[in-house]
Amino acid sequence: MNMIFLGPPGAGKGTMAQLLMVDEKIPQISTGDMLRQAMKAGTEMGLSAKRYIEAGELVPDEVVIGIVKDRLQADDCKNGYILDGFPRTVPQAEALGQFAKIDVALNIDLADEVIIKRLSGRRVCLKCGATYHTSTLNGSETCAACGEPLVQRKDDAPETVKNRLAVYAAQTAPLIAYYEKKGVLKTVKCEPHATVQENYAQVRKVLELA
Ligand code: ADP
Ligand code: ZN
Q: Ligand 1 atom closest to Cα of 68?
């Protein structure tokens, strides 16, 4: 199954995609993770993406389209994949349609006020992409999976989060109607107090996975 995960920043796309990746044995392809890795490695692409990301703006379409097009050629995409954070604009969706067949666009929905709280406590591992929340870390500052120090993303600062939500509403939310028209949209509403496992069970149900 070739899937897209849509939804506002902080809705839990990455967390759900990582669980599904393990259970379904298909890769999670996160443009955000790939861009952050390029920034960390100091590649030319990483350096040019940095100022957009840190301001909460979108990286130019041609950059992310190129990354995804290359990535989907890899062997591990043959049996399906989860695109997490791409497409984020209508032109990106149009481009994707030229080189991929999307079976499901899953819209993961969550209220704005919950998002701001979530993102301000978010910590990430730059090595494996795992995400955590300070409320469950019990003071730990390293990744449970690989031992790397956890960091707070610069774009999780409150002012930048506001800008990201505005960018989402203006540029990405129209994709919900776009994929609905194509007949592949499914929506899961994440409840603010539900656990990760409860939300994941909802996701599997909506995707009709056993
Ligand atoms: P979020 O937690 O907001 O979903 P991501 O980790 O997916 O964040 O992305 C972080 C940042 O990387 C975005 O705010 C944007 O600057 C950039 N980015 C990621 N994916 C894309 C994309 N498809 N198009 C443009 N910019 C992107
Ligand atoms: Zn890690």
A: 23
| Containing structural domain, residue 8 | 2-26+79-206
Is there an atom of ligand 1 within 6 Å of 196 CB? no
Atom of ligand 1 nearest to the CA of 52: 16
How many domains, the chain? 1
Answer whether 118 contacts ligand 1 (Cβ < 6 A). Answer: no
Its pTM surpasses 0.70? yes
CA–CA distance, 55 with 108 (Å, rounded to integer)? 24
Q: How remote is the C-alpha of 173 from its chain's centroid?
A: 14
Confidence of residue 192 (pLDDT cuts 50, 70, 90): confident
The one catalytic residue among 36, 118, 123, 164: 164
The verdict on residue 120 lying in a domain is yes
Assigned domain for 56 exists: no
DSSP-assigned beta bridge partners for residue 23: none
